[in-house]
Design a protein that fits this description.
This protein is α+β, with helices and mostly antiparallel strands and about 100 residues long. Helices cover about 20% and strands about 20% of the residues. The protein binds iron/sulfur cluster (2 copies).
Amino acid sequence: MTARYRGHIELIPGEEGQPLCVVCGMCEKACPSNCISIGGEKPEGSKKKVLTSYRLDFTTCSLCGSCVDSCNFGAIRFSKEYNLASTRKEDFHFDLLKRLEESKQ
Ligand code: SF4
Ligand code: SF4
């Protein structure tokens, strides 16, 4: 696996495994293929939004990198995932927040 290999994007975990994403929406806007759809909410008493969902439609992703380049918080990167195969489109609709949570277990 080369250092510059581009698999689908993934969320980068912080020190405690939490997403570094601040729900600014820049990656969503930067994507020319509308692959990214994020959701967030402000918990009561907090000034910052918390990420509640980060969905990627990998069926139309061109791996252009605009989303990664647009993130000023170092919150997303290309994964090293290379072994994807399925005959069902739905299998390429990823819930990246769920994936991050599962990777902690
Ligand atoms: S640009 Fe970065 S911080 Fe902003 S919503 Fe996307 S991943 Fe999160
Ligand atoms: S790599 Fe390009 S096409 Fe794929 S999700 Fe990011 S901005 Fe969209």
